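Quality-control log, excerpt.
Job 1 of 2 completed; input and output follow.
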Amino acid sequence: MVLIRWHGHACVEVRGGDLTIVIDPHDGVSLGIKSPSVRADLILVSHDHFDHNAVHVVSKEGSRVLKMFYGETVVGGVRVRGFKSYHDKSRGAERGLNTVYLLEVEGYRIAHLGDLGDRPEESVLKELQGLHLLVTPVGGRYTIGPQEAWSLVEILKPINIMPIHYRIPGLKLPIQPVDDFLKLVKGYTITRLNESSFKLEDYTNTVIIPKYP
């Protein structure tokens, strides 16, 4: 079983086997939302900005941290691959670099795009084929917006999609709501959950919207 839990903004928890992975933790307070309530075995940080790098909030004794990791490693049976991308459309000149993480957990391929600001290079797109879950920002301004996110979906054709990094109650960032992305969705079932977590194996061809915790 692979469990996915959303902690608001870009913070996503992935549980598979005996490993708890947290990607892009925030501290909650700085953003005006709730702090993540999880302790991770492995923490992945896509880039070193305050709303994605609050490692201390989700760490415990023995936590392993990969920050802006480019390459490949295996942790607790989970294959982790990190690909260089950009936080803006100027090859990082405005906001720096970003990491796209690809996880292989219990046979499932999960990609978290971090604060992706521009379309990844073709070599990266090729590696992101065959996804069971694409976790993508959709809020615009600091990341790709709804149209760019949907264009990536059309290229990658993931089995399921989980939008992140969009406007939620209390958030202090001026980004767009998820509905602006959902208006573009074709060919997928849109499912709004009544809780913040879900079992990945329960969904196929679905845009999954966990409830903000």
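Job 2 of 2 completed; input and output follow.
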Amino acid sequence: MAKKTTRAEENIQAVEEALSKTERFIEDHQKPILTVIGVLVVIILAFFAFQRFYLYPKERTAQEEIFMAQRYFDQDSLNLALNGDGINPGFLDIIDDYNWTESANLAHYYAGIIYLKQGEYQAAINHLEDFSTKEILVKAMAYGAIGDSYMQLDKTEKATEFYKKAANASENELTAPAFLMKAGWAYEVLGDYNKAVGMYKQIKDKFPRSQEAREIDKTIAHAKGMIK
């Protein structure tokens, strides 16, 4: 029993010594510690002030301003959607005028898709790579559009990279098999039929009810036939 009490006393003494060392450290470095704490408080307050008094109001305005550009996009009036109509801003204006907002982020996606449709492939890539989202289906479409742009630029290896990213981003029967098929075609362009077969087999195994799977056995047989 006495032995247990001794150990307990030793533990208490060790804790007290540690606390004493901490207190001495704080006393010796009180000024720099308070300075660091003060700086952190200022940074935190500045961050919340930036969000509340600058970013949130700017976001609300941006959401109103982007409406017409989205409408022009839906109507396939791509130049008006991109550059505005002289009264209402286009997506490029939203990007320039409302930086840091989610509307500007979304405008990068729209601009990228428009440039892809207009054959401005590098511009499409630039905008789509500046776009970010947690929506997995939209992310997949953005990756796929980058892949299409690289294919048009004859950068086929890069295209396969983004087609696979698109397929993996949202593994559903609507988009994933389509991007796997594109990846397979791209590998065939590169003459890498083994990897092409790998893409096609993923369609057969993972998405047997998809539209792409209907003729996938023939596609696999063709690719296998090209392997030397």
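Post-run check on job 2. The two ends are 82 Å apart (CA to CA).
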